[in-house]
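Progress report, Aim 2. The chain analyzed during this reporting quarter is listed below.
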Amino acid sequence: MAITSGLFRTKSVEQSIRDTDEPDSKLRKDLTARDLTIFGVAVVIGAGIFTLTARTAGTVAGPSVSLAFVFAAIACGLTALCYAEFASTVPVAGSAYTFAYATFGEIIAWIIGWDLILEFALAVSVVAKGWSQYLGEVLGSQPPVLQLGSITFDWGAVLIIAVVGVLLATGTKLSSRVSAVAVAIKLGVIALVLVVGATYFKPSNLTPYIPPAQPTEHADGLRQSLFSFLTGSGGTSYGWYGLLAAASLVFFAFVGFDVVATAAEETRNPQRDVPRGIFGALAIVTVLYVGVSIVLTGMVPYTELANGNATLATAFALHGATWVKSIISIGAIAGLSTVVMVMYMGQTRVLFAMARDGLLPRGLAHTESKGTPVRLTVLVGVICALLAGFVDFGTLEEMVNIGTLAAFVLVAIGVPILRRTRPDLKRGFRVPLVPLVPILAALACLWLMLNLSIETWLRFVIWMALGTVLYFAYGRKHSLLGKQRQPQPDDRTPPSVR
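Predicted structure tokens for the chain:
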């Protein structure tokens, strides 16, 4: 009993909101619905539209990659409804971590917070390396790396993380303004891609829309999806299995819209503006992703993109329009810059919330005069810079997907639970058709998780196990909620003595 005592203690919504007024850890409320929409578009439109679309079309799904984006968007849309209700009810930094603390209890909140730490750290580092590659293309040289003996140092990735860290330490409003400029640039580039690409469009290239299934090399054993392993289908590309696997892969392109919820505490009117920001961003990016994927696969046969290294520029190069490549590279640099920025911000806000609750060292939750957690911003920057500078991630990017999906599942399940336990709470937005919509959201996310590789699942389980050990070694002992609920000396005095 002693081991499990207090593991599921919940932190009331009222207490979470009161904590936002602590002078030493108070975030500045500067953001509007427009800022949140910009952040959402900024973080979602990035590597996915410039690289992932072509790669997935060529090697996994063929022309049906556009349908894979729709499937992923449906899962995100259902989950977005749940995020909007939680964020408008609990306008506190921390996103899924804070929601879980109010709904499931401390141990589940810690696990999902630990999960989000993995998601954001890997996302920042992986995207920073992608930014570095595009920087090399714009400069007309090899990727900006240094060879230090047997060690490769990616100084381009470190550079973007350092610049973004300075901007975030200065304040979220400045970060939003920089994001707005970068978003305008990449949307302009995408518009150009759609217009020019449409001139090369051939409907015959979309046939067959779902190509016949083919065995995939090196997709057996731990590299096959968990669903393929459970059904005995083995690793396949194209066909329906390929389409479903593609939906799980392109989900990476949507990762980040939930970051909007982490900024709820810094929003002037979170009950109104957070839902608007989430839905506005998701609607814009879904239209862009589907549009680009249809134009791309209509420009060239999908088999021309099957070398595994294809990008959006590849389709234009096959038509001799090599001049588009430079423009796409500029758009990619602008796009990936904002992805790094918003993911970086999400990472600091989750850690900030956990530190304010005592599950991590409280000193990390200190905010400076401008209302930004500078200490955490520097710490996150150093860690992500080391990862991006020295680590070759390979298939580790799938860890971002499984971490995000796990958080989505808990948020979806939490909506009907909080409706039942706290029906009195003021909700700026309410999910329709509860519990049907949250159940569908959870099932959709679980389905996407099943289509991730077995090795990704094993890594995820190991990371969660490490987090559990850390919770019992530190978090549980230092939890402020746990200390507040410990009996005082007078409370332990026998009644007969009182």
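The radius of gyration is 23 Å. Residues 106-139 form the longest helix (34 residues). These observations will guide the mutagenesis work planned for the next reporting period.
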